Every structure is written in C-alpha cells, then in structure tokens.
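Notebook, p. 212. Picked up where the previous page left off. The plan for this session was modest: take the two constructs that came back from the sequencing core last week, fold each one, and keep the raw output in the notebook itself so nobody has to go hunting through shared drives later. Recording the first one now, exactly as returned: residue sequence, then the structure token string.
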Amino acid sequence: MVLLFGAACFLLYYGGTMLLFVPGYPGEGYFVAGRLLYGVLPFVAGLALLVGVGWLRTRRNASSGLWRSVGRAYSWAAGLVVLFWIALMIIAGVRQG
C-alpha cells in the first residue's frame, strides 16, 4: 500500500509538472500529443492509484468508509506533492543565492 501511494504521488507530481510547467515553443497549442501523453496520462494514473490505495485501506480497516479513505489518500498525496514543491523551491533558492 505504501509503494502504491508513493507511485501515485510520483505520478501526480510528474503529470502536474508536465501539464503546468514544461514550456513548449511560443504559440504552441495546449492540447498537443506530447503534453497529453506525458501530462494527462500520468496524472490520471496517479488519481486512479489513489483510489486503489483508499480501497486497500478500507479492506484493511473496515471501520472507515471507502470515500473517507479515498479522501484521506487524496489529501495526503496533495500535501506531500505541495511539500515536495516547496522543498524544491527552497533548494533552488539556496543554490542560486
């Protein structure tokens, strides 16, 4: 379950980076094949893995409901991705300064 969660976080980070921060050439359309393949596909796969993590957690701990477990998985993943971005910004600031 931890490995699936880690893979989901990585896919969310990678897909979000490719969608939002990888520049194309000036005037490039947003819906090009490379951006969809390397951005949307990993992002959606990460979301699907988080649903799987929530489902596995529900099977292990029957006291919490499925939607509550999935919501917690999404919350933890979003928090970890944001913390990773903040850490990268701090590292970049230290290296430039």
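Okay, moving on. Second construct, recorded in the same format:
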Amino acid sequence: MARTPQLERGCVFGADHDSTYGFWISKDPRWKRCLAFNFTPPSINDDVHYFIATSRVNYFREHPLLISDVRIFVASSYSFLPEETAIDFRELRVVPLAKLRTKGLKLLGKLTTDDLRSCEMVIRSARILENRAKRMLGLL
C-alpha cells in the first residue's frame, strides 16, 4: 500500500482538478499547485484544507481590490514555483485526502517559516475569505 503523504501546513502539492470537485467550474481538467493549510496534518480519512495557486497574477493586478487577498511569489522563488505565482486566499478548498490521492496528488515542497507566516498574515486580513474558514485554520 502506498504511503500517505504528510500534508502539513505550508506544503505545496499538485493534483488534477476536474468537474468531480464541487467547486471546479471549468469543463477542462487541470493540474493545479496548491498550498496545504490544515491546522494539523490530515490522515487518510481526513479532509485537506488548501488554497489554489495560479500563474495568472495579472488578473489580481488588474483588480486592485483583490490583491490584498493573495500572496505573490516571484518566479523561481522555489523550485516548485518556476513562474511568478499567486496563492489565492479568497476561498478555502476542502477535499478528502483520499480523493486527492486518486487525482495524482504529488508533494512538491514546503514554504519557509517566514513565507508561511506571511501567508498567515494575508489569510487573517483577507476580506473575501469567510471567518468560518479562518477559524478552521486556527487563524481567527
């Protein structure tokens, strides 16, 4: 049996996202980089709490009201973030770990402590993210 990856807070992972996710709107499946943010690492029967990353950072620059709800990393700030990447903290995604494993879950790396703290600060002050989500993450 394959070993369950340890998705602690600050781990960046990738997985296919498609219409089987209740929140996925696009007809086309896409492999997405994500930032795990569980309060404690999930076991196989738990949900993973995470935020989706995107390399489409200009969208946020063109919508200045949204820029405060993202954390932008410069290109190659990490080997697993080769392009300029925004982590979107407007909506917390909650998906069973078992489902992510069936969708090609791959651990890519981990943010530094300083970058993790920076993300926590953005989450705490995020205007669009629900307070319920902030409480789930232990940040409110």
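Notes on construct two before I forget. Residues 113-125 form the longest helix (13 residues).
Flagging for discussion at group meeting.
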